[in-house]
Each structure stands twice: as C-alpha cells, then as structure tokens.
Specification:
Elements (H helix, E strand, L loop, with lengths): L3 E4 L7 E6 L11 H5 L9 E6 L4 H12 L3 E7 L8 H8 L3 E5 L1 H12 L7 E3 L6 H7 L12 E6 L3 H9 L5 E6 L7 H9 L8 E3 L13 H14 L8 H13 L8 E6 L17
The chain binds pyridoxal-5'-phosphate.
C-alpha cells in the first residue's frame, strides 16, 4: 500500500501525513476488515450483521465471509427499494444474503440479537461495534509511524478510536472527529469498548465537524474534497474522511498543535460511498 501521503497543509511548523488504509485492498479498504478480525477468527459457520443501504461495514463483512467461506446475512435498515444501492449489489455479488427491515423492526431486532437471543449464528453488531472490534482495530497501529505525536481518525461507532487508544504508543494523542450530530456518548462508548477511561493527554474529541449529521454534506465540504484531490491527488469520502481532514486543517490553523508535531491522519477508506453522490459533484 502507498502508506503515507505527505500534505503541506495549512501550517508549516507541523508535519501532516495521511496513512492510506484505503489502499490496503482493491475491494475492501480501510478500518472495517481490522474490526472484523477477531469476530471471524474462530471461523463461525454463519454470521448475521446489520447496516444501512450504504454501509461500508456490510460490504467488508460480505467480503471477509466470502474469503473464509462463511455464510452471511446482512440485515438492512429500511424497506427493500426497487433499485438496490451499489453497496447492496456488491454485498449480493459477494454472496451475502440480504434481509430488509423497517426502521422500527431494525432497531428492535438489533437490540434483541445484541442480547444474545440468536444462538445459531454469530451476531456482529452494526459497524463491528464491540470490544472484539476494538481489539481488531488496535492492529492498525502497527501501520502508523512510531514517531507520530497525534493520530487523527473519524468516529462513527467509535470502535476504531477505541482500538487506536488500545494500540497506540503511550505519548501519542488520539484525535477523534465525530461524524454524527450530537455524539456526546463517546467517553461512555470507549469505556465499554476498552474498559478504560482516557484523559485529555490521550484523547481529544474534535466536535463541531459533522456538517449537519451522519452522511450530511455541504457545498463547502464537497469543495474541500475537490481542492484536496487537486492539490494532493488524495481522494476522500464525504461521510468520514473528508470531515476528519477538514477538522484537522482547522485545528492546525487554530494553533492546536505545538510546533514539531507529527500528525498522522488515517484514511479509513469508504470511497465506495461517494458513488451515491450525483454525477459530477466530485472531480475525481
Ligand atoms: C466505518 C468508518 C469509520 C468509523 O469507524 P468506527 O469504528 O465506526 O468509528 C471511519 N471511516 C470510514 C471510511 C468508515 O467506513
């Protein structure tokens, strides 16, 4: 993989780079396979998991299960549409069986299975959320240069952030950029995921960069993505990595980072999600 892209960024006294987890694999990129690692380690005979119609997690699960010849079912939030999203088509092509649930059903089933009522299949929570997922995400740290002072990553379920906290060097600070609106429960989630509580020295939550909420976008965000591509040939996804990098550029401009900081931004993938945008929104 092209491990690092160096960015000049908005400030010159810090070093900014992008760790390209999006380039790990041509089909499945980013953090999702890491999160699945320990769930699938004991080769369950079947797997059930959950996601929306554009879920990167569903694609990654379909792919990992096909690779290991594990039967898998994806429970999809929302009624079955006439035309499946490209994400769901890809899941089907990878052999995942899809079941569509109304939002109400989806929420109640998700809760029931999380309580372990489904005994016949391994149930993986939405987004790989859980201590096992965090343990898998911790494996990502071996790809991050050891002299990094700050590791920046988008947070959805916060499982990846939990893994980074588990696997990081003691002196490194994790910067979490929540992509959901009003996501105030990150510390609570991290405690469940890692059984630990983190001080400011280890974790900074950069709030206020959700651009209206999950999978929401503004012209400013899309134009930022086009500019970054033009300057660095670096493609970002609008749900996660664009918001993360926008936040980091803002923090640099606001003097958050001390001179000499070596900042590693994680490109956690998700580029297939850009296919849901109208044609010509992006220049790449
Ligand atoms: C899922 C995802 C994330 C967020 O990971 P969590 O562990 O759920 O916080 C970040 N970036 C991309 C591209 C993703 O697909």
């Amino acid at each position: 993989m092209q491990q690092i892209t160096t960015l000049a960024g908005p400030g010159t006294d810090v070093q900014l780079s992008m760790v390209r987890f999006d380039q790990l694999h041509p089909v499945i990129s980013g953090n999702k396979l890491f999160k699945l690692h320990y769930y699938l380690q004991d080769k369950p005979c079947s797997v059930v998991t959950f996601g929306g119609p554009y879920s990167n997690h569903l694609v990654a699960t379909a792919f990992a299960c096909q690779l290991q010849q594990i039967a898998c079912t994806g429970m999809v939030r929302g009624e079955q549409p006439c035309n499946l999203s490209h994400t769901l088509l890809q899941c089907q092509q990878l052999g995942m069986q899809l079941e569509f649930l109304s939002r109400q059903q989806y929420d109640s089933i998700k809760i029931n299975t999380a309580l372990g009522l489904n005994k016949s299949a391994l149930v993986i929570p939405e987004g790989g959320y859980g201590p096992l997922g965090a343990k898998g995400a911790a494996l990502m740290c071996s790809y991050i240069p050891p002299d990094t002072t700050h590791i920046c990553c988008a947070a959805g379920t916060a499982t990846t952030i939990a893994g980074l906290l588990l696997g990081k060097q003691p002196q490194q600070q994790i910067i979490a950029v929540p992509v959901l609106k009003g996501m105030t429960d990150i510390p609570h989630r991290l405690q469940y995921l890692t059984s630990q509580v983190y001080s400011n020295a280890h974790l900074h939550i950069a709030d206020g960069y959700d651009f209206g909420g999950y999978a929401k976008k503004t012209p400013e965000l899309l134009s930022f993505m086009n500019t970054i591509y033009q300057q660095y040939q670096l493609p970002l996804d609008f749900v996660y990595t664009a918001k993360m990098l926008y936040a980091v550029f803002n923090l640099v401009q606001n003097g958050y980072f001390a001179a000499g900081s070596r900042i590693a931004c994680l490109h956690t993938g998700g580029l297939q999600g850009n296919l849901s945008l109208p044609a010509h929104t992006l220049t790449f």
